[in-house]
Amino acid sequence: MSVPLLDLKAQYATIKDEVNAAVLEVMESQYFILGPKVKELETAVAEYSQSKFAIGVSSGTDALLVSLMAADVGHGDEVITTPYSFFATAGCISRTGATPVFVDIDPVTFNIDPARIEAAITSKTKAIIPVHLYGQMADMDPIMDIARKHNLVVIEDGAQAIGSEYKGKRAGSIGHYGCFSFFPSKNLGGAGDGGMVVANDADIAERLDILRKHGSKPKYYHRFIGGNFRLDAIQAAVLQVKLPHLDSWTEGRQTNADKYRKLFREKGIVVDMPQSVKTGSSDWMNEPLNGVVLPEEMDNCRHIYNQFVIRVDKRDELRGFLNERKIGNEVYYPVSFHQQDCFSDLGYKEGEFPFSECAAATTLAVPIYPELTDEMIQEVVDAIAEFVS
Ligand SMILES: *Cc1c(COP(=O)(O)O)cnc(C)c1O
């Protein structure tokens, strides 16, 4: 049996009539950009994310870019972020003319390690972008403390984390800006590109609204240089149908994570991270894991499992093995930002962020989507156990 990494058709089958009707309604209205459908979605996402305001934008990438623009980040500024994320997180910083400054991750959660942030702050630092990777939020309390102390803007990259929680607070609601992506493979995915920024400050929300329309208010009178970062009504209509299902889909992902944990344990191949990784040594390079490290959930957090990411030895060989058996898998992400060609001028060296480099070399995402059957999960576990043993 083949097990895809993600099966959007299986999800579509459960909501097809509703989605099709919503799209048809937009076609009949011929009202395609922003407008009432987008407004309704913004209200719903703001409420879902425990935020006062929400501004629909053209993608998760544009959510980050327009937030940086609204925060007036540009040439001469530095923005601190993780070296281990989807490219957009760092790419957007550079696109504003600012310089990304990387801070290594916590090797257990894969999120930026707050204990390392202050050492990276300079007089040029303007903002911090924590990423809630794989659907689990970064350790936000110390990040907000540091931001307050140094007067920095916090932009949450919640592209993989809509609905996730940190001590009862939803992703996006803690920082000054919260960015979401509706890329089809995210937990709340549209029928194309889309994104949203949430905020609790009315002035910030207004700036975002103006900037997504070329910085004009009223129309054709430009206060700022913005861009076309608008959300389409068709995306909003589809997402409005999907949002009420999001919590049950999240439960499905969490249940699948529990099933993986149980089945991997039954195989006797679950191991903890080697101690040397956790204590800051770089001995991990030579130390085999001899098993599968499973994702850990932090206390008082709601992990929404956009991805279920394990760590293994011989990761690339395992990929080949799984591909041969038609078991979906992916590496998020094989190259840390500081080792990307386009950031070579930043002057970072190999070995500078060992936890990020270690994650890039050893992690593998396996299927976690809610429509997976028990047989499929068993097949994934059987195959990995066969390879590991
Ligand atoms: C998907 C993603 C983005 C970008 O979102 P798009 O909608 O694809 O532009 C940004 N950051 C992270 C962490 C992501 O996973």
Task: Give a description of the structure.
The protein folds into 2 domains: 8-245, Aspartate Aminotransferase, domain 2; 246-388, Alpha-Beta Complex (Aspartate Aminotransferase, domain 1), CATH 3.90.1150. Helix 4 (88-95) links the parallel strand 2 and strand 3. The model has no long low-confidence stretch (mean pLDDT 96). The strands form 3 sheets. Strands 1-9-8-5-4-2-3 form a 7-stranded mixed beta sheet, with helices on both faces. A 3-stranded antiparallel beta sheet has the order 7-6-10, with no helix packed on it. It has helices at residues 8-29, 35-48, 60-70, 88-95, 140-150, 202-211, 233-242, 246-266, 275-278, 315-324, 354-362, 374-388, and strands spanning 53-57, 78-81, 99-102, 125-129, 153-157, 165-166, 169-170, 177-181, 195-199, 301-302, 308-311, 363-366. It has 12 helices and 12 strands. The radius of gyration is 21 Å and the shape is globular. Helix 1 (8-29) packs across helix 7 and helix 3 packs parallel to helix 4. It has 389 residues and is of the alpha/beta class. The structure holds pyridoxal-5'-phosphate (PLP). Residues 59-61, 85-86, 88-89, 131, 157, 159-160, 181, 183, 193, 195 line the site of pyridoxal-5'-phosphate.
